[in-house]
Amino acid sequence: MLALLLGLAFADPNPGQATYVAKCQACHGPQGKGDGPAARALPKPPRDFTSPEFWAGQTSEKLRSTITTGKPGSAMRGFKMSETQLDALVTYIESLRPTD
Questions:
Q1: Which of 18, 25, 40, 84 has its CA 20 to 30 A from that of 11?
Q2: How far apart are the first and last CA of the chain?
């Protein structure tokens, strides 16, 4: 029982954020504004996840598809990951959506 409680205490509280930091932050930036350190070297700026324009017509399924298959004509490549990891990442990116 103690091992289970210790495991929960050290579990990643936001696995989607951890995946974002590892796979997305270099281009999309720490707050998802498309201003990561690698963004300057790209021919087109990465998507700004905090922009209302990005979210117009956006769905969880479209996000999932872009993450896994990439975006033709851009520097966005597809990423392989488990369904659990993908679900957590999509949830995290959706948390960057502006509320007003």
A1: 25
A2: 44
In three-state secondary structure terms, 23 is helix
Cβ–Cβ < 8 Å for 46, 34: yes
Q: How confident is the model at residue 12 (pLDDT cuts 50, 70, 90)?
A: low
* Domains parsed from the chain with CATH numbers: 15-95 (1.10.760.10)
Alpha helix positions (H), the chain: 2-10, 15-23, 25-28, 52-55, 60-69, 83-95
Triad 32, 82, 23: Cα angle to 5°: 30
What the block records as the tokens of 72 is 């033709």
Of the candidates 29, 31, 21, 34, the one whose C-alpha atom is nearest the C-alpha of residue 74 is 34
- pTM flag (> 0.90): no
Instruction: Give me the residue label for tokens 């974002």.
Output: 20
